[in-house]
Amino acid sequence: MSKTKRSPARRPVSRPTRNSVSPPAGKRSRPAPLPLTVSRSELLDDGSDRAFRSLVHGLFGFLARHEAVRAGHGRRIGLMGIEYTVLISIGHLAAHEGDVSVNRVAEHLYLSGAFVTLVTNKLLQRRLILKTPDPNDRRRVRLEISEEGWARLAELAPFQRQVNDIQFDCLSASEFKLLASMVERLIESSNRALRLQAYFEEQAAGAAAPEQPASAKRDRNQPKLNLQ
Questions:
Q1: Which runs of E-coded beta strand occur in 78-173?
Q2: 3-class secondary-structure state, position 120
Q3: Are residues 80 and 148 located together in one domain of the fold?
Q4: In this structure, are residues 144 and 129 in contact, taking their beta carbons and an 8 Å threshold?
């Protein structure tokens, strides 16, 4: 018996509705221009902040890689990155300044004293540093690296030198000095930027807070009762 051929099924054709308008082929809506992230003429290139954005993102990439290098130095001697940094900072400060305190390490690393205290307590538990009372000020504690701490830093040094040399091999002597000076200035200006940002946040929080009635304001100013 001969088989009858079936015609292929027709697919339904989608037709545009009366309200739908298709954009012309090959054309897309133009995105709105991004607002500038800086306004100083020194940071703009022909009115564009593209170079500034490239610098900021480049710094982010460098700092992420530098953090990874620091963590690698710490792993080499069985420490976390920040533990290694505090340990070697104590050693360098002691070599150049003599007595080292928690506050001096915090100032040197731009960290809080409370945080440095936590890290130094961990190093003390591992017997990598020593803490002794300052004979001139009993409230002050002097930090010293122990023999075990020095042994770990000496173990790291040959590998550390090679890695650090490679990381900064793109800089000449004059560029290195200029970069060191620029970083110090950028830290100071960043501190001022953070204070301004905190001020803006406080202003926004104050504007968002609902206005309290006068009676509530009077109650808030009254001394609180100790009910404990």
A1: 129-134, 137-145
A2: helix
A3: yes
A4: yes
Give the Cβ contact number of residue 147 at 10 Å: 9
Residues in contact with 37: Cβ distance below 8 Å, sequence separation at least 6, in sequence order: 49, 52, 53
Structural domain includes residue 211: no
Measured at the CA of 184, the angle between CA 181 and CA 189, to 5 degrees, comes to: 125
Q: Which carries the bigger pLDDT value, residue 161 or residue 14?
A: 161
How high is the pLDDT of residue 221? 40
Query: Residue 217: what pLDDT?
Result: 45
- 67, 80 contact by CB (below 8 A): no
Decide if 161 is inside a domain: no
Verdict on whether the full-model pTM lies above 0.85: no
* Domain CATH number, residue 141: 1.10.10.10
Chain centroid to CA 127: how far? 29
Q: Check whether residue 192 and residue 127 sit in a common domain.
A: no
Per the CB < 8 A criterion, the answer to whether 152 and 140 are in contact is: no
For residue 6, being part of any structural domain is answered with no
For 82-96, b where at least 16 C-beta lie within 10 A, e where not — what string?
bbbbbbbbbbebbee
Q: Quick one: tokens of 129? A: 């540093």
pLDDT tens, 51-109? 999 999 999 999 999 999 999 999 999 999 999 999 999 999 999 998 899 999 999 99
Across 110-124, 139-153, 200-214, least confident range:
200-214
**Distance in angstroms (rounded) separating the CA atoms of residues 190 and 199:** 14
